[in-house]
Amino acid sequence: MLVVDFGAQYAQLIARRVREARVYSEIVPHSMPVAEMLARDPAAIILSGGPSSVYAEGAPQVDPKLFDAGVPVFGICYGFQAMARALGGEVAHTGTREYGRTPLRVAADPGVLLRELAPEFEVWMSHGDACAAAPAGFAVTASSAAPVAVFEDVAGRRAGVQFHPEVLHTVHGQTVLTRFLYDIAGLAPTWTPANIIEEQVAAVRALVGDRQVICGLSGGVDSAVAAALVHRAVGDQLTCVFVDHGLLRAGEAEQVENDYVAATGIRLKVVDARERFLGALAGVTDPEEKRKIIGREFIRVFEAAAREVDAERDVEFLVQGTLYPDVVESGGGTGTANIKSHHNVGGLPDDLRFALVEPLRTLFKDEVRALGLELGLPEAMVWRHPFPGPGLAIRIIGAVDEERLATLRAADLIAREELTAAGLDREVWQFPVVLLADVRSVGVQGDGRTYGHPVVLRPVSSEDAMTADWSRLPYDVVARISTRITNEVAEVNRVTLDVTSKPPGTIEWE
Ligand code: XMP
């Protein structure tokens, strides 16, 4: 089904909720001509919320032709008002403004969307104008301060809600959305991990045929799932390359080299580039300089490995773990195409051009994780927190060397172990541990004075890493981490907690 984006920040959330109801959804811009939308043969259409008033100059309108095609339509917030207006209902500047949690009063006849829920419950609103009269043929099944907050025309397979069913603050929001999908639009819940795998496997096979594919593994979930999917499709035609730059956390290289290979049976070429990276980073303290060096070395090492694989096997495709939000945000096509052909990939040189295979291009992160589990990947990999490409190098404030990496790895492992033991992995978005390698402070341990380094704990909660807040970890968890680190990591005699949000701080320290 299609989610028509009227410029609200909620379109992606709506698409995700629809998929949580196991119905495949794609986002299209409201500027797309209706003929083009219909040409995609959607099983249903959702009109999303939008920031503007339907009366504002230049406000996006709904082309009435959308309603002539017999496709089920659901309007949300702005989409609800635009729908009301296009079908002859009345939308007015009533002076009614509702923002945030609002009580919804269900009519005596609750209809299909609201049947057997509650006479009144809280929903999330965000609107200025209000719908004063539903279009002919629609039953009004709830009101708020606005006289018409929910309407439906079950026979015509159309309905709309003034509130935002996709946000968690709306009680019964997912139920209402699901009822539109199943009971009004008549859709079936077929978008399951097993079906997604089957579909993508078929698509990759059709694209790749009997040709050879290469994939770089980073240790992160996206590349791991993308490679596992492609492997399921074309088996031995896939070669994976893992560049061990020595900047990963404790156990992560082994996870790729042992657990992942054991789980998938993938052919893996491991490049041990630890010395090379450490050599290039020796004495470098400037954050940007570190990043540039790591980026440059990474491309060089990967390129050399890719050339070797290419020489042996004549590679034509490169797997990339691009996700749907990247595709939507870059304004890219929302089609299901698995290929952007002959792209100059990730800084690889012109004579080493591969066509792209992007089997995750239509998926959200939570779907990628579900697929990873379905494909039998190690849980630790599937649920790994985001981790920056330059790795621990940008979590050592000061120059990077083997000894400092070992210190940070030990402290980081303790923090991760305790977070997991407290059952907080999924509540925390990311948990960098930072070593202030150029700072020393005085401490006392046993009978002796110590002069060690501080580490900083930086647990953050976030939706997308664009903004973040520091996580209010329970103090006993923080205390356990602190005690263990200062006891078990000899070089560290002080543990501090970073209580800065983003902005003004960034998540990483460098
Ligand atoms: P900041 O520190 O800018 O980080 O708040 C935002 C998110 O991006 C991650 N990050 C990176 N990821 N390569 C990556 O793949 C990088 O160079 C990089 N730098 C930061 C960071 O961990 C956080 O999730």
Automatic annotation (TrEMBL):
ATP binds at residues 218-224. Keywords: ATP-binding, Glutamine amidotransferase, GMP biosynthesis, Ligase, Nucleotide-binding, Purine biosynthesis. The active site is at 77 (nucleophile), 164, 166. One of its GO terms (molecular function) is ATP binding. The keyword Cell division does not apply. Residues 191-384 form the GMPS ATP-PPase domain. GO terms for cellular component: cytosol. It holds the Pfam family GMP_synt_C. Gene3D superfamilies: 3.30.300.10, 3.40.50.880, HUPs (3.40.50.620). Homodimer. This is GMP synthase [glutamine-hydrolyzing]. It comes from Pilimelia terevasa. The gene is guaA.
